[in-house]
Amino acid sequence: MRELTYVARHSVEWREAPDPKLRSDQEAIVAPVAATSCDVDSAILAGHGFIDPPFALGHECVARVVDIGDAVTSVVPGELVVVPWSINCGDCEHCRSGLTAHCTAVPHMAMYGAPIGGSWGGLFSDLVRVPYADAMLVPLPEGLDPVAMASASDNWSLSWRLVAPHLKARPGARVLVVARGSIGLYVCDIARALGASSVLYVDPDPEHRALARSYGASTAASIEPMPHAFDLAVEATGRVDQLALAVKSLAPEGICESAGNHFRPGELPLLDMYLTGVTLRVARDNVRNHIPDALELAASGKVAPERVVSHVIDWEQLPDALPGKHLKPVFVRDTTPPSTAG
């Protein structure tokens, strides 16, 4: 099989690798059918990551199940599934408490798409081994488009977690979104659908702002801090100055969720945060715990994640197209098993 490999800044290529095999009766082999780049992949391709190449890329996809071990009961061959970005057993203390990104059955931060916590390959691969199939794989609800849901492995489900629990606790909250990619746009869509009283989306890209307005958000290319203006702020830029802007704009006891990939250091306005009493969470998400709820919202018809998909591109074009500047490209292929009828 082939796996798409990051080899240098702005450069990826297909490399041959052995076909994955089942190593236990709890495993599955899947074939991605709609895979997309996470916002962090864009940072890696731009040379801002902290891991030296080469390594297999990709950690967001909908896949078709190809083979399963004898003990697997939750999925069957031929079924479409969401493959979460992190490797998790579902049975350790952390997994049972929802901390699936911190599974103790595997090295810390074991994941697809980067050699952190071992080498698990990437989801831009022809075939992928899933070590704990019942714990990890989530069947795609009937009627949901794999292209629209390619990001459910991470960005879409993360975006649900960034706002949905807070809007449940604070109905009608005022929401600030400071972003540069797909996460911020998904947040706008979800926040509107779940009853935010207002959403302000801040992004220098005019096309992104236009898309945010289609979700009912007001927009700005940039703003100065707006003290006490928002109950919830979501930062997804990877820039500490923009994170500081977000926390400075919070109301007393406001909450800031940082989904940016902060590869570079910076300073936060700690005194302002102290005086306002803000809560700041900077976290790599335990996304497997949220995928079912995020898919349920997607299936409700109240949201339109498909609008964030900027390009639908043939799988074979991955090496040429992935390094390009795209908001949310989805790479597709047909892995439907051949019919044996007749």
TrEMBL record:
The lineage of its organism: Bacteria, Bacillati, Actinomycetota, Actinomycetes, Kitasatosporales. Keywords: Metal-binding, Zinc. Gene3D superfamilies: Medium-chain alcohol dehydrogenases, catalytic domain, NAD(P)-binding Rossmann-like Domain. The keyword Metal-binding applies. This is Alcohol dehydrogenase catalytic domain-containing protein. Its cofactor is Zn(2+). Residues 183-299 form the Alcohol dehydrogenase-like C-terminal domain. It comes from Streptomyces phaeochromogenes. It holds the Pfam family ADH_zinc_N.
